[in-house]
Fold this sequence. Notes:
There is one protein chain. By secondary structure, this protein is mainly beta. Helices cover 12% and strands 47% of the residues. Strands 1-5-4-3-2-6-7-8 form an 8-stranded antiparallel beta barrel. Strand 3 and strand 4 form a beta hairpin. The longest helix is centred in the middle third of the chain and has 7 residues. The chain is globular, with a radius of gyration of 15 Å.
Amino acid sequence: MGRHLEIERKFLVKRLPAGWKRRPCSQIVQGYFPVARKDLEIRLRHKDSEHFITLKGGRGRRRLEEEIQISKPKFRALWPFTGMAHVSKRRYEIPCGSKTIEVDVYGGPHRGLITADVEFGSTRESSQFQPPDWLGREITGKRKYANEQLARRGGLHRIRR
Length: 161
């Protein structure tokens, strides 16, 4: 994938749209490395048969992102360094006009949490986006809903909606 500026908005899902289970989906497991800086995230991701290490810098709608594909043996060698900071989810791709909404249905200790991300080419495009009525409250930049925080905190019972 490479480095780019990620412009994204994130929402809670009020109700899943009709036909969501028939949409393309991926199984994702990711673990997070301990880091000293609050504005830096380093994660390992296993998505279907692919493996990645990703660095993200910044917070909110705009963040720098560098994603590097790695081999399965390298992934397995690095995984223990993530400790217990893990998240498991199934990601569905839902079309919405010219955009694709990525809906994450969490498993394990986060079962019951469903979020949606929409990526944009510009901040202006992001501001003009009108969410469909099946999306709920916007949670862009809310740390407690960030995957890294979910992974470090454990179960959904610790999140107050």
